[in-house]
Design goal:
By secondary structure, this protein is an alpha/beta fold. It starts with a strand and ends with a helix.
Length: 526
Amino acid sequence: MFSRCYTATTQGIEAYTVEIETHVEAHVPGFAIVGLPDSAVRESKERVLSAMKNSAIPFDTNRKITINLAPADIRKEGSSFDLPIALGMLATGGVVDGDKLKEYVVLGELALDGAIRPVRGALNVALHAKKMREKYPSIKGMILPAANAGEAGLVKELEVYGLNTLREAVDFLNGLLTPEPVHIDIEKIFREDAQHSVLDFAEVKGQEAVKRALEVAAAGGHNLIMVGSPGSGKSMLAKRFPSILPPLTFDEALETTKIHSVAGTLPPSTPLLTTRPFRSPHHTISDAALVGGGMVNIRPGEISLAHHGVLFMDELPEFQRNVLEVLRQPLEDGTITISRTRMTVEYPANFMLICAMNPCPCGNFGSTVHSCSCAEGAIQRYMSKVSGPLLDRIDIHIEVPSVKIEELSKKSSGEPSAKIRERVLQARERQQERYKGLMIPGGKRRIFKNADLPPKLLHEYCEIGDEGRTILKMAMSRMGYSARAYDRILKVSRTIADLAGAEAITPAHLSEAIQYRSLDRQFWNA
């Protein structure tokens, strides 16, 4: 007796098809799973047989059962194969309708009592299931855990059935249970979860120059570093930064949700992430946890979980040097490629990097309020923990001074986040119109904002005129900026012009952009 059913599993954020073939021979007891299964897949035998028995589903185990996971040359990992293996076995004995089983992509982990537990990557598999119909025209939907039905229901033109137990799956395939397919109102999710924050820039006293720099960073998608004494408000400002960012588009929300679904960090009641991620890892994080990795299951790291959002690194010099250096390539490319002996996985990592640090070990170097107690060598060692190549990839450097008592005692609040966000949105709309349909050379991803501009297109979209070139040439010779810093200055000046509603970059825009590159020279050359 033979049966075939379909499932899929993920590799990175993409899914691929797995055919589960089941062959049963009478009177020769045995159970084998082939097709490069890992330990979790091999252990599915015990879960499947126990779930059948505890669900009172008849199945003769006194036979030789062979299950092949095709393609056989790709390693299969995880517990999501439990449900399709169980249904494939039942189809060989006629307990379920094998022809109807082929109409669905099935995935789910089985508990010993027959309950269907949630799995990772349901949204990724659902998107792949829609593509599978080109090769398998009989497929019309999915059977998966009820807890994952919301994710899969985001995919239109696909019948999605979220079930709770193995018994429900058997009854559904036999026509004894007729649940309604899951449909998710995407527009309603965006309306109900419209980006808002309990943290507001109105609560920040003073620091107008820093708030201006954060507005520029949000408008153009630029990386930013804040340097200042303890208590000056660096972390407070960074935590309020998401409140001025533009909302996620549907395509951005879908891609972000796929990453969190694979990582298993998607909240149970949230089928779609509609607010930009804000990740703030502790400085003890390892390089593998930051960029992603693992010897067998390659999982996304913090930089991928911050995709289309913000990665905030507080106390930057306290991070290990090798951890900081692995940021260099993702900041340039917007992706991270993780290679292992058995496979290579690519995860998106198009994030905004916001950093905060003290200017010295005691934190008071350059302060007008407190005196610094650090030796010159200690200051140099502390600042050198952040390398020049990493700083070159951070567009905006800003000093955060201590707030004066007069500012703190004011009763009036600062400018609210909503008002700043309006200006950011207008600047982003100008950029999206300017770069409409434009791709980064190589065709890997589209250009949406000024920070995405490759060097090849800078002179076309960031023309500064003769006076601007004179100013920039003078700044380059005095400050010793690198070619990368030159490019970053042009991008930031283009964003400043967009915030001002100007078509051309003026010397004033360029001068403001240059001032955002002078801070690192002030401290690193001190």
